[in-house]
Every structure is written in C-alpha cells, then in structure tokens.
C-alpha cells in the first residue's frame, strides 16, 4: 500500500507516524512545501518574544530525524500542484531544483492547513507588514525587530494569536496598539468575559481600538476607518485564517467552508482523506458544519485517519467543540463549547449563568479571582459551553468543562463533580461545583436572573432596584437609581419594599443577591430577579461598553 500525505506539521505528521506504527511495510511519502516537517507552531509568538530563547526547541522532529525514526520518505520544499483522482497521481514541484514530477498513490491524505487572511487593502504589501503562520514568518518578524530599531507595532486582529503577539512584543519593550474590527477581543467568548481581559490589557499600557477597521497602509502609518492614523514601525496581521482549498477544488472534491469529510475523515473521493485546518465538520453541539483551527484536534484526527486508512473506516471522528485557551499577560482566558452569541445565531434556546470564584481556598495565600460563564439547555440542563477568565487554575477547570460537554453532561454533573481538594489547589466547593449549583437553582426556578445589560431597560416608576451590599460598598460605587438595603437587614425592612412592583436585586458577585431573593420570595414577593454575576460583572461590562 502506498500512502501520500500532502502537508505535515500536526495533522500530516501525526497521520504518517500512526500509519507506520500500524503498517511497517507500507510506502509512505510526505510532501511539505516548507522546510520544516514538525514544529511547535503554537510556540512561535513566544520565540519572537524571547520567552523561548532556543529556536531549535521549536522543532519536534526534523525531516531527517522523522524519516530515520519512522522509515518515511519525507520531501520538504516540495509543493503538490495538482491531484488527479481518476489516475491516482499527484504533480509535484521541488522548489530548490525546479524539478517537476508525478507520483502515484493508493490512498492520499490532504493536510494542507489554512492560510492567513490578507485583505486587498492599499499598501498591504508594503515593507514591514507581516503575518505569522510558520517558521519562515517567525524568522522574518524576529529579524525585522532586531534590525529595524522597532519602537511601535500595530497588531491588526485581537484573536488568540493577536493577543499572544501583543504580549510578547510588549515584553520586548516595544509599544503596542491593537486594532480590532469587532466590538470586543476574542470572538469565541461572550462580552462579559472579553471585557475582563480588555481591562487587563489596557492596564498593561496597550491601546485597544475596538469597532475599528484598517482601510489602508502608508509608509509607517496605519489608516483607520474613523480617519485616525496610527504611526507604526511594523504591522502584524492577525485577522484570521481560511482553509487552503486550491488543491481540493481543482481535484473536484466536495468543499464548503472547508473540505467536506464524513465521520471517517474521508472526502467525497473514497481514496482521499483530509485532516486538520483544511476540513469542515459538524459541531457536536449544534450539528452545523464548522472549521476548527486548532493543533489538538488536528493531531487527534491524524491518528483516527491512519486507523481508518489501514483498517478500513473503523473509527469515527466525533468533531471538535473548539476548546482553546490563551495567556494574556498575568491572566488566562479560555473557552470550550459554544458561547451565548453563537447559540443565538444557531437559534438554540439556552440559559446563561455567570459566577465568580477563587482559584483555591481563600484563606490560603495566593488565591485569585476567577469568573466562569456557562451556557446550558433550559429543557434538561445539558451543558453547551463554558468560558473562564482568571489568573490561576483556569486551564484545569476548562479541561473539565470540555470533557463534560463532549460527553453531553448536564449542570447536575457539575454539582456532583468530585475534585481533588486541598487548600493550595481548590476549595471544598470548587468553582465548577458553584457554577453547577447556581445553574441548578436557575433551572429549578429557585433563582430568577437578569443580566447586566437588562438594567438599562428598567423603569424606576414601575421597578425597584435594590443593592444588598453593605453601606460602605454602596458608597464606593453603585448602579444609578438603586437603593441600598444590606442583605443582613432585609428581613427587618420588608415593609419598606413595595410588594406590587418588579424587584431587581444585585450584590457584588451574586450570592448575597440570591440570599435576599430567597427571603423576599418566601415573604410574598413574587416578582424578584437577581443580577447574574453581580455588580462586578455589571461594572466591568459598562466600563468596556
């Protein structure tokens, strides 16, 4: 059996290595248009920022070492220019020699990945404007920074890579400004989570231009759609990526937003499979086809693809829920599953709950704040998504949410989730448990919630807004139009609260508001709501609106 794999790195290299482990005698050829077969592309921003100092540590395997270990014919700097599915051949161009030739196959794997988006803006090809996708891009950026006396960099796009680049370039002592066309950073998360990170970025001295697009580039200038001009010595484009579909379309493979594959990662041609950034696949939550531009799923797809190539479609790929995380200076933010805005776009009914917790027991030194927002089904409590922003312990909670969402678990499973507890690591009730308990109260109608942006619609002739924090907290800042009745005094002041009006309650984080709500509901007040996430979420969101 002869296998050809077009493209290496996560998906292609993973497929090739698994193929060899399953079949010692197969002929396996990898074509990689670049010079590097397996490298840590997620580590590239940290090499640019001198966090990773040794360039060689980026390389998981060289072409020589990979070939020697797995007995695979590795052909770097080799571009496949055409696929002929009928004759089962590919055309190859070897860049260093200029040689063109054909290669036959029995089975073919497409792992060509995605390419950076470069909109056709005036001046986009000027010197000093870069994208970051591979090692060559990295070397160009790092060389330019070291040789061109860079003082200020503009990053276009505030996704995961854009924020990693912002932090790393800022760490070199270079001034950074970020331009983002959307209303917030980090499109995968909802605004209340993004707002926390936006404030943190601003505190680090980075200027954010949100709701702002670039219209053109001049020499050392970035021109914006609001007519502002930013002086810049260098520009990093981090607008996003799109699947590289050129080969697939020319070969007549079925494509949409990516190469369309079945549950076995098989394309519309039964002899051609595809993995990684180039494919589209049904989201397990929505059932809607989507792209996933993540190394983890690509690597796992490679293993599944190889199993199916050798054994004949024996293992199904279940899809990705796009679990992703990023370090942003001192904070960490991550998401798994679907945010509320994406559920709304898919017309999926859901409930949102925001809770604040701490990374470990509050009495143990070093405990830090953590905000969790989850989405779940109003019918049965099935978890749809989770987002977390915090300083410590974000990753382990996110991984737990990811596992539960993949298994189609519910908010009740969060309540009973048993974690490893000791004061340095968590609390007796972990933030995951707390998120589940609050969601359970909402689902069982023990807790009725409103959200931070609902307050602007209150009618203070018909509604009452009560701040149940202490008088000192109230004096330090409050929602305009609210009255202060501390939770510990509310039982003694029931007669001062109009029973015939809608009553909205908030505290700092949500717990005291819930306690006050329970008191009122059991004393004849039937129309009582508590603000999810409390004053902390409201203030952060309002400041960033």
Which stretches are poorly predicted, pLDDT < 50 over at least 5 residues? none
How do the strands line up in the largest sheet?
Answer: 5-2-1-9-21
Q: What's the alpha carbon Rg, rounded to whole Å?
A: 27 Å
Distance between the termini: 59 Å
Number of helices: 15
| Helix content class | 25-40%
Return the structural class: alpha/beta
Task: Characterise this structure.
The protein is α/β, with parallel strands linked by helices and 545 residues long. The chain is 28% helix and 27% strand. The protein contains 15 helices and 33 strands. The strands form nine sheets. The chain has a five-stranded parallel beta sheet, covered by helices on one side. A five-stranded parallel beta sheet has the order 11-18-12-13-14. The chain has a five-stranded antiparallel beta sheet with strand order 24-25-28-27-26, with helices on both faces. A hairpin with a 2-residue loop joins strand 24 (324-328) and strand 25 (331-337). Helix 1 (9-22) runs parallel beside helix 8 (295-311). The chain is globular, with a radius of gyration of 27 Å. 44% of the residues are buried. The model has no long low-confidence stretch (mean pLDDT 96).
Strand-helix topology:
Blueprint: E1 2-6, H1 9-22, E2 27-32, E3 38-39, H2 44-48, E4 59-61, H3 63-70, E5 73-76, E6 78-84, E7 89-94, E8 99-104, E9 107-110, E10 114-116, E11 129-131, H4 135-147, E12 152-156, H5 160-170, E13 175-179, H6 191-203, E14 207-209, E15 214-218, E16 221-224, E17 229-231, E18 234-237, E19 241-243, H7 246-250, E20 259-260, E21 272-274, E22 279-282, E23 289-291, H8 295-311, E24 324-328, E25 331-337, H9 340-345, E26 351-358, E27 369-376, E28 383-390, H10 394-406, H11 411-416, H12 431-443, E29 449-450, E30 463-467, H13 471-476, E31 483-484, E32 502-506, H14 511-521, E33 528-531, H15 534-544
Parallel strand pairs: 1-2, 1-9, 2-5, 9-21, 11-18, 12-13, 12-18, 13-14, 20-22, 29-33, 30-31, 30-32, 32-33
Antiparallel strand pairs: 3-4, 6-7, 7-8, 10-19, 15-16, 16-17, 22-23, 24-25, 25-28, 26-27, 27-28
């Amino acid at each position: 059996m002869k296998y050809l794999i077009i493209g290496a790195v996560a998906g292609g290299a993973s497929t090739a290595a698994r193929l060899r482990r399953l079949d010692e005698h197969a002929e396996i050829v990898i074509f990689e248009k670049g010079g590097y077969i397996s490298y840590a592309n997620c580590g590239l921003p940290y090499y640019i920022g001198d966090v990773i100092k040794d360039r060689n540590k980026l390389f998981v395997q060289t072409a020589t070492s990979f070939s020697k270990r797995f007995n695979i014919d590795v052909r770097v700097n080799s571009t496949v220019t055409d696929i002929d599915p009928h004759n089962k051949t590919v055309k190859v161009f070897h860049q260093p020699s200029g040689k063109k030739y054909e290669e036959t196959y029995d089975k073919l794997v497409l792992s060509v990945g995605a390419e950076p988006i470069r909109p056709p803006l005036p001046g986009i090809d000027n010197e000093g404007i870069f994208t970051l996708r591979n090692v060559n891009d990295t070397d160009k950026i790092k060389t330019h920074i070291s040789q061109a006396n860079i003082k200020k960099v503009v990053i276009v796009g505030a996704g995961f890579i854009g924020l990693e680049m912002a932090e790393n370039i800022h760490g070199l002592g270079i001034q950074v400004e970020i331009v983002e066309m959307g209303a917030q950073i980090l499109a995968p998360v909802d605004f209340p989570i993004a707002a926390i990170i936006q404030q943190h970025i601003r505190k680090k001295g980075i200027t954010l231009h949100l709701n702002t697009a670039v219209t053109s580039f001049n020499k050392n200038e970035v021109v914006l759609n609001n007519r502002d001009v930013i002086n810049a010595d260098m520009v990093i484009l981090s607008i996003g990526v799109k699947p590289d579909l050129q080969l697939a379309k020319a070969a007549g493979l079925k494509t949409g937003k990516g190469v369309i594959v079945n549950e076995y990662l098989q394309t519309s041609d039964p002899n051609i499979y595809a993995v990684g950034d180039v494919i589209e696949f049904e989201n397990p939550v929505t059932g809607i086809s989507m792209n996933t531009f993540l190394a983890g799923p690509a690597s796992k797809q490679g293993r599944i693809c190889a199993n199916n190539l050798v054994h004949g479609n024996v293992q199904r790929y279940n899809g990705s829920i796009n679990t992703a995380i990023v370090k942003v200076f001192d904070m960490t933010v991550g998401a798994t599953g679907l945010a509320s805005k994406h559920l709304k776009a898919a017309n999926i009914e859901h409930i949102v709950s925001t809770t604040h917790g701490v990374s470990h027991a509050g009495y143990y030194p070093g405990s830090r704040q953590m905000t969790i927002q989850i989405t779940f089904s109003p019918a049965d409590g099935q978890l749809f998504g989770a987002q977390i922003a915090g300083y410590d312990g974000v990753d382990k909670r996110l991984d737990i949410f990811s596992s539960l969402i993949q298994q189609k678990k519910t908010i009740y499973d969060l309540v009973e989730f048993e974690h490893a507890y000791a004061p340095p690591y968590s609390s007796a009730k972990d933030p995951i448990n707390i998120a589940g308990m609050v969601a359970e109260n909402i689902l069982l109608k023990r807790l009725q919630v409103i959200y931070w942006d609902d307050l602007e619609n209150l009618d203070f002739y018909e509604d009452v807004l009560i701040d149940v924090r202490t008088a000192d907290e109230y004096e330090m800042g409050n929602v305009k139009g609210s009255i202060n009745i501390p939770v510990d005094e509310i039982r003694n002041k029931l007669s001062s609260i109009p029973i015939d009006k809608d009553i909205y309650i908030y505290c700092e984080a949500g717990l005291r508001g819930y306690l006050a709500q329970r008191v009122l509901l059991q004393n004849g007040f039937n129309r009582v709501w508590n603000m999810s996430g409390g004053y902390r979420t409201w203030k952060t969101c309002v400041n960033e609106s």
